[in-house]
Amino acid sequence: VDIIVVTDGGRILGLGDLGTNGMGIPIGKIALYVAGGGFHPVHSLPIQLDCGTSNAEYLASEFYLGARQPRIGAEEHAAFLEEFCVAVKDKWPSCLIQFEDFATDRAFAVLSAAQKKYLCFNDDIQGTGAVVLAGFINGMKAQGTELKDSRMIFFGAGSAACGVALQIAQLMAFEGMSVEEARSHIYMFDQKGLLTTTRGDELPDYNKEFARTDGAPDTSNLVELIKYVKPHALFGLSGAGPLFGQDVIEAMCASTERPLIFPLSNPTAKAEVTAENAYRWSDGKCIFAAGSPFAPVEYNGRTYVPGQGNNVFIFPGVGFGAWLVGATEVADEFFLDAARELASYVTEEELAQGRIYPAIAHLREVSRNVATRTAECAYKMGLATLSPRPDDLLSFVERSMYVPGEYGGEVAGGADFPAERLKYLYVPQLSHNTAFSIDQRRKLHIEGLQPTVVQDITERKVRFEHMLKEEPDAFKKYLLLTQLQAVDLTLFYRVLVDNLPQLMPVVYTPTVGQACLCWDRHKRTHSGMYISYFEHQGRVREVLDNWPFEVDIIVVT
Mean pLDDT, the chain, as a whole number? Predict the structure, then answer.
């Protein structure tokens, strides 16, 4: 295994604690690491940690697939995550671990404990920060505002918001000001109002560094705060839905001629404002980017194309670059460089049109460049262990990226299987389905166990794309794709890579959120592992031995 994406289901998108129903997140994220970043699918592993759930509906449901136990406490959680990380490093020493959708307090605690000991990062904190930072860099260019003069309000103060704010502060500090001065440009607003040291409540540790100490008003009114701060940018990371009303957008326009409006909460229904309302209420003046995709907006005879500040522009490239050169850690500097690289991909002409992110269709090229920049940073910091250093890092990264193409002539070996001949039909990493030639079927003793027609991958891809086109419902498209993923991994990635702009919102957000909500009622063949505190504590390393392939990446929740 080269990569693991792991989640404990504690905070799935803006949907809350979904327990083991969160498995759709690491599965979807692995798909993007492969299709967008170049990891090999056979060596990529999504993992769901079962740490219980605080979701009363799931605890009472006969369909829930996880342990019907309350979510474990912080001390037990920390010990279990440490055991997990130790087991992964022992089993696959060079494997990258990406933490995903942990509850805010646990996300910071896990990252703090693991960052210097294991090759790991948290995309909600660091990836979100980098992708928004790239949009912020380009938004300031489009505005004509110097970074040192910029002011911003964060609506929401959880892990994603703090991750973004930290990276913006780091960038401003890199440009010449102190970290303390950089933080003074940032105003954090949570459900109780502006974070200050005088508002009378105890703030969590991760919020304290952003609490105002300068006499700013203890207001719980966002419009009042906008009038006081006169910000250049408004970031929405609350997960609370459409709370940016017309008064908020108009106040931003009164503050800045072309304000940055970033409703970044996922899925789409949780966004703080829609693209249409943002453009209309700002009279087309705002620079808009959201966490989920929005359709183009027609207003006053002009077409506005909303930007999508999606982490997918960052995490595949950072992860692949760090893993490829054997980095000993995923340093914070990797994400600053990744943000700069992503920002540089947008042309001056696109900036003039209000576009601050590239199109998703360019994802693999963007990921290649981000991976190269990450690898360069790793060598510069002395963190890369791959020796000798490749002469041309860009070419090396490009050659190393997995590209789904024709099925190989030789059938790869696999894990022990009860009926040896059946593994080539039922193990998705090995299956060629009807693409097996007649000679191969005879050699493998699978002749007669499937239709006699022989189809190459292009024929099968066209047939499956037709099925997708005939299905208008995004969730049903998701089910079709996961069914394909469960039986033929190569075809799944061929379809996904060739249709990334259309299918990324299907295999991941926003559709994956709907899938997680009913995960326990749509039984499917799972492509990952379930590791439970209640069943496997003390035996995590033993349980990992049951996965039959090497893993390059794990997505874990």
Answer: 90
pLDDT tens digits for range 239-278: 888 899 999 999 999 999 999 999 988 888 889 999 999 9
What are the tens digits of pLDDT across the range 345-364? 999 988 888 889 998 899 99
Lowest mean pLDDT among 204-213, 230-239, 388-397: 204-213
Q: Give CA–CA dist 207/184, Å, rounded.
A: 13
What pLDDT, on a 0 to 100 scale, did the predictor assign at position 525? 63
Cα(184)–Cα(210) distance, integer angstroms = 8
Cα 293 from Cα 312, distance rounded (Å): 12
Return phi, psi of residue 76, to 5°: -65, -40
Peptide bond into 388 cis (omega under 30): yes
3-state class of 37 per DSSP? helix
Residue-wise DSSP of 235-281: EE---S-S---HHHHHHHHHH-SS-EEEE--SSGGG-SS-HHHHHHH
SS3 186: strand
Report which secondary-structure segment, H or E, holds 338.
helix 332-344
Q: Are 44 and 33 contacting, i.e. CB atoms less than 8 angstroms apart?
A: yes
Nearest to 39 by CA among 557, 550, 431, 531: 550
CB within 8 Å of 296: residues ≥ 6 apart: 303, 304, 305, 306
pLDDT at 417 over 80: no
- 546's enclosing H/E stretch is none
Structure tokens at 257: 């001629």
The b/e string for 187-226 (b: 16+ C-beta within 10 A; e otherwise) is: bbbbeebbbbeebeeebeebbebbbbeeebeebeebeebb
Peptide bond into 267 cis (omega under 30): yes
What's the pTM value of the predicted model, to 2 decimals?
A: 0.75
Burial (CB count <10 Å: 0-12, 13-18, 19+), residue 321: buried
Q: Tokens 């208008």 map to which residue?
A: 472
Mean of the pLDDT values across residues 468-493? 91
- Residue 318 tokens, joined: 């950072």
Q: Starting at the edge strand that comes first in sequence, how are the strands of the sheet with 193-194 ordered?
A: 193-194, 186-190, 152-155, 233-236, 260-263, 287-290, 307-308
What HEC string does 393-420 produce? HHHHHHHHCCCCCCCCCCCCCCCCCCCH
**Residues contacting residue 169 through CB under 8 Å, at least 6 positions apart:** 179, 182, 183, 185, 186
Q: Are strands 307-308 and 302-304 parallel, antiparallel or unpaired?
A: unpaired
Six token digits for residue 489: 């991994």
Query: Distance of CA 342 to CAs 129, 130, 309, 374, 455, Å?
Result: 13, 9, 11, 12, 39
In eight-state DSSP terms, residue 204 is P
Q: How many CB atoms lie within 10 A of CB 359?
A: 14
Query: What is the SS3 assignment for 1?
Result: coil
Across 252-256, 408-412, 521-525, least confident range:
408-412
Long-range contacts of 330-335 (CB under 8 A, 24+ apart): 330/96, 330/115, 330/119, 330/120, 330/121, 330/126, 331/377, 331/378, 331/381, 331/383, 332/126, 332/167, 332/170, 333/377, 333/381, 334/374, 334/377, 334/378, 335/126, 335/127, 335/129, 335/130, 335/133, 335/167
